[in-house]
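Aim 2 progress update. The chain analyzed this quarter is reproduced below.
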Amino acid sequence: MYEHPIFREFRGGKLPRLVMTHVITAEHSAEHARLQHLHEDMLELFYVAQGSGEYEVGRHPYYVQCGDMIICNAGVLHGEEPAAKRKILSYCISLTDVALYGLPDNYLLPLDAYPIIPCGRLSGKIGEIMQLLTMFSADLQALGPICDSLSCGILLMLLEIARSGSHRTPPPKIDDAIAKRIKTYLDQHYSAPLSLERIGHALNISPSYLSHVFKKEYGEAPMQYLYKRRIGEAQSLLIDTDTPIGEIADRLCYGTINHFNTVFKKYVGITPGRYRKSFKTMDSDEKGG
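Predicted structure tokens:
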């Protein structure tokens, strides 16, 4: 029986499936940072269609420019630092059921690989496919199979680029084991009512030493990192769900909507309600809605 070559790349004969798409305009990216967040069961691909700037993957900042694809494996933190400069038009697709041989589910690259793939001579074509996916996803019920096929095409092209040897190697990094323990704890408990004392008690580390080693490794205080993580997760809920803003504030330990609005605006530049509306407007404009 004939087997199409595409099935040879994926375990179990199951092909990846497109879950959602987003477009972020250059103006929006310059004014409103998308803070650190992660997705446990999805692979995200960000294509830089125009512009340049900084983007963080796994707490490491990378310079990205037009034609680059940012690879965000499932469970890996990614996002933007509010203070960093950027002006990027980007297309984002989220995929699930990605099961490549030799890799965990919903991974495109090994965890220690450099997460930026410059698309080179294929950048124009990949950009056109990403734009088509954004348009077609307006009707996933009818066009889902087409979207899935286009997504598989992008994955295979990226794999070919990575295997060709043109993919860059990661810069050396020094990880502090204690700082990583603290970060892991914060990533797992960001929705809990935390303080330095509570974190220190949970990890059996003094609050002063905890703060010192974390800031030395990651460049910011642990509570500052926690606040940004909460805002990053809030952005995901605002973009991807219809969860009421009051419920989001409760989930992330903000106490009141007013407090949530104040903190969100401090980091993102606009209120949660306006942020949700701005994403719906960008997506609707791109999809012709």
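Residues 177-282 form a domain with the Arc Repressor Mutant, subunit A fold (CATH 1.10.10.60). Confidence is low (pLDDT under 50) at residues 171-175. These observations will guide the mutagenesis experiments scheduled for the next reporting period.
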